[in-house]
Design brief:
The chain is an alpha+beta fold. It has 11 helices and 10 strands.
């Protein structure tokens, strides 16, 4: 799909601000803080309307939509942005889809303005039920590897009762009985936490149950796929630039056939990934839930493979320097590896795609 002039301007503006504010030094400073992001940068992005991109104007958002949001996620990936954009967008989605008018009026304006940060506690395996239980109106259990779970103000928790009915619960992170503990992760540019619920009262619930949970998985897959395109494009740009300047045997290594082929293959992978990722975004914007069940896992599967290959190739083309802490190639590689396993692995998304297409594994005798 060809972008509109407004979408092209949005991409250019996003790339400009992130090129200035999400530099290598800024990333390295932010990722080692307790929060995992620069609060001043988050305020700046919030003033530009990033968190409220999908929020209707009546609730304080810009009301643009999913294609525009996906453009922001691609640029965020390209610049390895450290910010609670994914977590807050998923939280907003849950409230837009499952909240009533009172709940939307109460929470969406603060979320759209960036004053309130949200996250969702979803199973990272598509095949597993939620680990948090809802018994007699209270939550018990631990949600593991919650994106920005230690810094979110609002938690949307997928909980199951004794009958395995799924109930999405909205709870203030400061509620008694809620304890978030940051976990050590390979990718320091995206902080994760284990959130334990020990008798926390569940006074606010969303509608939708299993259907809302499935939709949030598809939204997460779409946004992450577009972010992965940005990371892959960044890796290809770095590889190409280095291949033009690194000399061996008196020649730039980009003149060697093996390197040429690797870079050409990389370009094909990036463009293919961008195509399926934006298709998923457009399907989400069209609210075609049937097609989205195909487009989202397809995008995640293909984009996960592309970003892994491109970031690994970037390290190889850079040689020994690519492995060092001083070089940023390993930061992109770590982001690629961590994103591949958020909200379902590539293998699980391929299985979901097969199921959506009506394929069934033949029974073994």
């Amino acid at each position: 799909m060809n972008p509109t002039p407004e979408q092209a301007d949005l991409r250019a503006a996003a790339r400009d601000v992130l090129a200035k504010r999400s530099t290598s030094a800024a990333i390295r400073d932010a990722m080692v803080t307790a929060a995992g992001f620069d609060t001043a940068l988050w305020k700046e992005l919030s003033a530009l309307g990033w968190p409220g991109m999908i929020v209707p104007e009546q609730f304080g958002g810009t009301g643009l939509g999913w294609v525009e949001a996906s453009i922001l996620f691609e640029e965020a990936g390209r610049h390895l942005l450290c910010a609670p954009l994914l977590s807050t967008t998923l939280g907003i989605t849950a409230i837009l889809e499952g909240g009533d008018e009172r709940q939307q009026q109460a929470w969406l304006p603060g979320l759209a303005a960036g004053d309130v940060r949200a996250t969702v506690a979803l199973p990272h395996s598509l095949e597993r039920p939620p680990s948090v239980q809802l018994v007699d109106g209270v939550l018990r259990g631990t949600a593991t590897l919650v994106v920005d779970g230690a810094t979110a103000d609002l938690l949307i928790v997928a909980a199951r009762d004794a009958d395995d009915t799924i109930t999405p619960v909205v709870i203030d992170a400061a509620t008694s009985g809620v304890n978030a503990q940051s976990v050590d992760v390979m990718d320091q540019t995206r902080h994760l936490a284990d959130v334990t619920f020990d008798g926390a009262e569940a006074t606010e619930t969303l509608s939708g149950g299993t259907e809302l949970l499935a939709h949030l998985q598809h939204v997460a897959a779409t946004l992450l796929a577009n972010e992965q395109v940005g990371v892959a494009a960044r890796a290809l740009d770095e590889s190409t630039a280095y291949a033009k300047t690194r000399l061996q045997f008196g020649r730039a290594i980009g003149s060697f056939q093996a390197v040429k082929h690797r870079l050409a293959d990389g370009l094909v992978r990036v463009e293919a990934a961008r195509s399926v990722a934006m298709h998923a975004a457009q399907t989400l914007a069209d609210d075609d839930r049937v097609e989205l069940a195909i487009a989202a896992p397809m995008a995640r599967s293909l984009c996960s493979g592309a970003v892994r290959q491109l970031t690994a190739d970037n390290i190889q083309i850079h040689g020994g320097i690519g492995f060092t802490w001083e070089h940023d190639a390993h930061l992109a590689f770590k982001r690629a590896e961590s994103s591949r396993h958020l909200f379902g692995s590539p293998e699980q998304h391929r299985a979901a795609l097969a199921q959506a297409l009506g394929w069934r594994k033949a029974a073994t005798p």
